[in-house]
Q: What sequence folds into this?
């Protein structure tokens, strides 16, 4: 007999499941303005506290406070708010299109609009983004035509990706939007490679990439951090911690043990943790990291603390794994409402103008959708040419593909 | 006997084995509380407990590596990879580690693990939810590769795979989860509920690995198929007006060579159908095998009907998918030669 205690296996569980009361009591929220803002040349080691804090600018009354306040002018803030409204209206319309059988699949970013919109405002137009599937806001904020996005979702004749990609997996080099992969996390180390190339060429453009909290468990996340650190790559590595990875809470990705931002510390990367529902905080953190990257000081890891309000995708029913009212009780509120309140507090906006802007966004989406549907929806109307199925596998079509195309009769 | 669809049959297999053997456990992304995105593990955590059926981080390499470690300890883990398209981060662990553990340690360490994963097209999943990667595994020494095509087989083969002492890649044709699919996208969808192939015993039974099944007997031409394509083959056989013999391979490694050879020697003709891309696909292996063993009995060249050598295109699923029209054309070519 050994007098050693028996081991036991621990499997983490979330604080609340369906039927339980939502429980966010373990979340520690710094007050807006409370977290310090270091100089951009701070060493990772000296700012490790920021990987555990939460940078917030907007307070409960809609005021912007503290050292991270980016002090943006009212016109910029209004443009940002409009971009968020447009993103939300677009999501709502496309979600409905999927429900009506006009496409196979859709994913919303409701509640996370500030993450992508603020980043596109803080980055330069020619910086390269390596997004996941929940940053449609980047394209919308950069003015990519809604019609093109819809054509992609509908896989119709004008789909810029020729009916090849799953809906929402956009791609546009001209808009600095790297082609989306369904394979989680692969874009993260690729963004580092792009940034290394930019540094190698003496370019002044930087890269940014986004993954979800769940995806930090992939090896690619760690490859990205290590390469970014070793080669001091000019890249911003964003983890969007929206609390859920399909049905698995962030604790299953290791988020109970430490913050996702803190992963940067072991790699010697400065890491910021920001209120992802606070447009100004996301903007300020991104601008800080961008300036750092442009000054040849290397990469920054940013964790955006937010909440996935809607289901994971149209294939998901979140009421099966989390309390139905959990989203409503999320303590960081709604990013659109918070930016609106801020503009109103500044005397630069009103509830009426908000209503009006919302209506405009819905109208704009409706008009584009009418045009897109007139071209075609999945399996209806005009399709991309079947011939194109064999193109772009290689630069020049090899003989065996030419033969297969013939065999198919096109 | 209860009628089960393939999801329920797989669930039942896991339930039976979790009940029977405390060394069996199952895990993967969304597998625990939620019961898996395709519901294959539905209710198992509730019934068997948190440490027998649980969620994992999204790290396929980690999932398979952990399974290998558990197997080395003496457990029989069943790991789920959410879609076969996402198995590649685990590929090194599967190919370099699981497949060779027994060989390189001279039998000292083994990996009695099952890696289950839904694969194949027909659900508008686009290029990242539709691939058929079976040939990537059959090419690796030390792995067994299993593909069921009915609920009955799915349950029996999964139990056999769990009891097997070697690593098994268990590919589930997701187009068949709810019912058979004959390859005619416009026809009404059938479910397993009323089909003989949907009858699945509640308790323990096995379908042995390495045994093919002659699903339809005939004298004109042999069709070799597995997974969803078995049903396409059956529909094609019925609609071709020919006397086709249809063989469901059920396991690709080990392969039931005898059943295949006997059939082709009898019919003198062979058409192979699979969803995966053409070049280097498992059909090439089958074709070579038939040529090696049946050369003098062949009346016509072996035909292969497969996916094209392109990634799976979202909008052109039915043009990509090898449907009955293409199979029937191949059958006719085989008969005319
Ligand atoms: C390599 C890989 N494994 C599994 C999946 C299936 N899958 C798609 S999304 C998802 C959850 C991702 O969660 P998270 O990273 O937190 O991002 P979120 O969806 O919450 O934005 C999973 C498991 C995949 N697409 N790729």
A:
């Amino acid at each position: 007999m050994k007098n050693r205690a028996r081991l036991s296996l621990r499997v983490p569980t979330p604080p609340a499941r369906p039927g339980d009361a939502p429980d966010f009591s373990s979340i520690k929220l710094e007050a807006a303005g409370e977290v310090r803002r270091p100089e951009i040349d701070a060493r990772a080691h000296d700012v490790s506290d920021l990987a555990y804090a939460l940078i917030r600018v907007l307070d409960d009354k809609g005021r912007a406070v503290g050292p991270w306040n980016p002090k943006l002018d009212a016109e910029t803030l209004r443009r940002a708010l409009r971009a968020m409204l447009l993103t939300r209206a677009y999501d709502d319309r496309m979600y409905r299109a999927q429900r009506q059988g006009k496409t196979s699949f859709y994913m919303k970013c409701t509640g996370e609009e500030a993450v992508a919109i603020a980043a596109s405002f803080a980055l330069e137009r020619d910086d390269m983004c390596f997004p996941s599937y929940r940053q449609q806001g980047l394209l919308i904020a950069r003015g990519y035509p809604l019609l093109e996005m819809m054509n992609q979702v509908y896989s119709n004749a004008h789909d810029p990706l020729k009916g090849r990609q799953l809906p929402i997996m956009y791609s546009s080099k001209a808009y600095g939007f790297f082609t989306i992969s369904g394979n989680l996390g692969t874009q993260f180390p690729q963004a580092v490679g792009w940034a290394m190339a930019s540094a190698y060429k003496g370019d002044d453009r930087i890269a940014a990439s986004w993954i979800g909290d769940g995806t930090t468990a992939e090896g690619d996340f760690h490859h990205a951090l290590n390469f970014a650190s070793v080669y001091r790559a000019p890249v911003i590595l964003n983890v969007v911690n929206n609390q859920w990875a399909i049905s698995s809470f962030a604790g299953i990705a290791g988020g109970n043990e430490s913050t996702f931002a803190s992963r940067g510390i072991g790699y010697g990367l400065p890491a910021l943790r920001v209120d992802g529902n606070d447009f100004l905080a996301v903007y300020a953190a991104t601008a800080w990291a961008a300036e750092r990257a442009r000054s040849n000081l290397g990469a920054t890891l940013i964790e955006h603390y937010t909440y996935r309000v809607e289901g994971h995708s149209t294939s998901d029913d979140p009421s099966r794994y989390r309390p139905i009212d959990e989203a409503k009780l999320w303590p960081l509120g709604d990013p659109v409402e918070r930016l609106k309140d801020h503009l109103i507090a500044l005397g630069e906006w009103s509830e009426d103008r908000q209503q009006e802007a919302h209506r405009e966004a819905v109208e704009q989406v409706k008009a584009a959708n009418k045009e897109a549907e007139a071209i075609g929806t999945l399996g209806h109307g005009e399709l991309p040419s079947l011939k194109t199925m064999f193109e772009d596998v290689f630069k020049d079509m090899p003989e065996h593909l030419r033969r297969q195309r013939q065999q198919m009769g096109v | 006997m209860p009628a089960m669809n393939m999801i329920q049959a797989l669930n039942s297999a896991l339930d039976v084995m979790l009940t029977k053997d405390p060394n069996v456990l199952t895990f993967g992304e969304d597998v625990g509380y939620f019961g898996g995105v395709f519901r294959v593990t539905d209710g198992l955590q509730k019934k068997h407990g948190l440490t027998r059926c649980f969620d994992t981080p999204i790290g396929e390499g980690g999932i398979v590596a952990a399974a290998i470690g558990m197997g080395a300890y003496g457990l029989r883990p069943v790991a789920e990879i959410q879609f076969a398209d996402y198995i590649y981060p685990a590929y090194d662990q599967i190919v370099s580690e699981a497949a060779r553990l027994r060989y390189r340690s001279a039998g000292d360490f083994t990996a009695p693990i099952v890696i289950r994963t839904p694969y194949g097209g027909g659900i508008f999943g686009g290029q990242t939810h539709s691939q058929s990667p079976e040939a990537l595994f059959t090419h690796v020494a030390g792995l067994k590769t299993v593909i069921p095509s009915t609920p009955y087989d799915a349950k029996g083969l999964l139990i056999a795979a769990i009891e097997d002492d070697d690593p098994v890649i268990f590919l589930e044709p997701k187009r068949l989860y709810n019912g058979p699919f004959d390859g005619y996208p416009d026809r009404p969808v059938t479910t397993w509920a009323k089909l003989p192939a949907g009858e699945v015993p509640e308790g323990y039974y096995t379908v042995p690995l390495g045994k093919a099944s002659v699903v339809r007997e005939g004298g004109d031409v042999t069709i070799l198929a597995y997974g969803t394509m078995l049903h396409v083959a059956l529909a094609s056989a019925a609609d071709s007006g020919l006397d086709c013999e249809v063989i469901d391979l059920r396991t690709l490694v080990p392969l039931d060579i005898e059943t295949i050879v006997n059939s082709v020697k009898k019919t003198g003709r062979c058409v192979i159908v699979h969803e995966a891309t053409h070049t280097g696909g498992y059909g090439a292996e089958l074709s070579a095998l038939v040529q090696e063993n049946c050369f003098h009995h062949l009346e016509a060249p072996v035909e292969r009907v497969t996916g094209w050598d392109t990634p799976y295109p979202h909008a052109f699923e039915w043009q990509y998918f090898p449907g009955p029209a293409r199979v029937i054309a191949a059958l006719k070519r085989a008969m005319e030669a």
